[in-house]
Specification:
The protein is of the alpha+beta class. The protein has one domain (28-124): 2-Layer Sandwich (Beta-lactamase Inhibitory Protein, Chain:B, domain 1), CATH 3.30.1450.10. The chain has helices spanning 3-21, 29-36, 40-46, 53-60; strands at residues 65-68, 74-89, 94-109, 115-124. β1 (65-68) and β2 (74-89) form a beta hairpin.
Length: 125
């Protein structure tokens, strides 16, 4: 096998391997649109103490976890996790860069279904 043929075979294997490792996962479109609503800006600007549960759903979509407490109050948790991958490279080499972000929002509601507490945590690594 000459050097040029070897290079094409090697590049083809790298390309196929990269595509297999970084292919996007299938998502349900409605849920994908719902999770795109969940941003730090939306939480800070639209979710305040006294906001109704209906308004929260309109702004943020459905929560991932709902806990009903014995006193009639509720706790809602929104948990968004995303991973982004990028492959950059030239003729001789390729570099894969992956970043992960998490965004967790916890909302506490009173018996009248109004927000009493908003807490959030965002990480990026």
């Amino acid at each position: 096998m000459n050097k040029l043929t070897y290079s094409f075979v090697l590049m083809g294997c790298c390309f196929i391997s990269a595509c297999a490792n970084y292919a996007p996962l299938a998502t349900i479109p409605a849920r994908q649109m719902e999770t795109q609503k969940l941003t730090l800006g939306a939480v800070q600007s639209k979710i305040k103490e006294g906001t109704s549960s209906a308004e929260v759903v309109e702004v943020m979509g459905s929560p991932n976890i709902v806990t009903s407490n014995p006193d009639g109050t509720e706790t809602w948790v929104y948990d968004k996790f995303s991973t982004e991958s990028e492959i950059a490279g030239g003729y001789q080499s390729a570099v894969a860069v992956r970043s992960t972000r998490t965004f967790i929002v916890t909302l506490k509601f009173n018996k009248n279904h109004r927000v009493t507490n908003v807490a959030y945590r965002q990480t990026s690594y």
